[in-house]
Amino acid sequence: MYSPKEPQWGPPDSWGLGGACVLIAGATGGIGSAVAKGFAAAGARVMAVGRDQARVDALVADLPGQGHAGAALDLNRIDQHQVLVERTRVELGGFTALVHLAAVLRRRASVDDVTEDDWDAQLDTNLKSTFFLCRAAGRAMVEQGAGGRIITCASNAAWTGGMEGSVAYAASKGGLVSLTRGLARTYARHGVTVNTVVPGEVRTPMLLTGLPPGAYEAFEAQIVIGRVALPEEIVGTVLFLASPHAAYITGAAINVTGGFPFF
User: Fold this and answer.
1) Is 248 a catalytic residue?
2) Which of 5, 39, 108, 240 has the smallest number of CB atoms closer than 10 Å to its CB?
3) At what angle do helices 53-62 and 30-41 cross, to 10 degrees?
4) Do residues 162 and 118 make contact, with C-beta atoms less than 8 angstroms apart?
């Protein structure tokens, strides 16, 4: 029975994603694993990408359906992006969508504590590598001539600017919104849509690691819905943007924040 409080993925054909071939970067993360399972439950074939081979293998083994594959890759290896895209096309039998969820957050107490290495690590993973993998995916989709979907993952920090030592992360996510819009303009004439999902606070290891006392409760107090999201509550928006239902949406930044304030 339908419940508005619980995510519903099926039946698989309701999304129009049966047989879709989806590359998910950052698939072993908190949101990534939920998204991978959502696509698999909707009838898609998934190429799950993460840094650790054992975690990738465990995720792939747990996905419903058949035809899935996995790859361990540091996405900062820009020279391997084209290889990854081609591997996806071969192992899945096609390439329909890229969902880029990989990100790094280095939480610091103060802006004065942010080092050059902190800045480079977050901008390289969250923005630089995202651009190059999206470009490799876009090229492949243009060559195929059948259109496609590229979906990135920003953050509410793109709107708030973060605070104190999280400003570098916020800058990378703000840049990602602009990047998504630029790629949308680039690929629209080829039938490739490019959009970004903008989560608020989500209960993942990234959020919970290194949080100062009382911070989690402070987040919840600011959210209109009254609680931090579960990773599964981000999945529906991603599946929608990858589906035929979103064919006329491109360059969009869709907030999934539970009413978390921008400022």
Assistant:
1) no
2) 5
3) 30
4) no
Which entry of 169, 187, 216, 248 is annotated as an active-site residue? 169
For residue 199, give the 3-state DSSP assignment: strand
Contacts of 155 (CB under 8 A, 6+ apart): 103, 169, 170, 173, 198, 199
Looking at residue 252, the DSSP 8-state letter turns out to be: -
What would the pLDDT profile of 127-142 be if each residue is shown by its tens digit? Answer: 999 999 999 999 999 9
CA distance 248 to 250: 7
CA distance 28 to 140: 24
Q: Residues 99, 35: contact at Cβ < 8 Å?
A: yes
Looking at domain 16-252, its CATH class is alpha beta
Q: How far is CA 46 from the centre of its chain?
A: 14
Q: What is the DSSP string of 124-181?
A: IIIIIHHHHHHHHHHHHHHHHTS-EEEEEE--THHHH---GGGHHHHHHHHHHHHHHH
What lies within 8 Å, CB to CB, of 221 at 6+ separation is: none
11 cis-preceded (ω within 30 degrees of 0): yes
Local structure of 65: helix, strand or coil: coil
**Amino acid at the residue 180:** T
Domain ranges of the chain: 16-252
Closest CA to 232 of 197, 202, 254: 202
Instruction: Report pLDDT digits (tens) over 11-70.
Output: 556 788 999 999 999 999 999 999 999 999 999 999 999 999 999 999 999 999 999 999
Percent of the chain with pLDDT over 70: 88
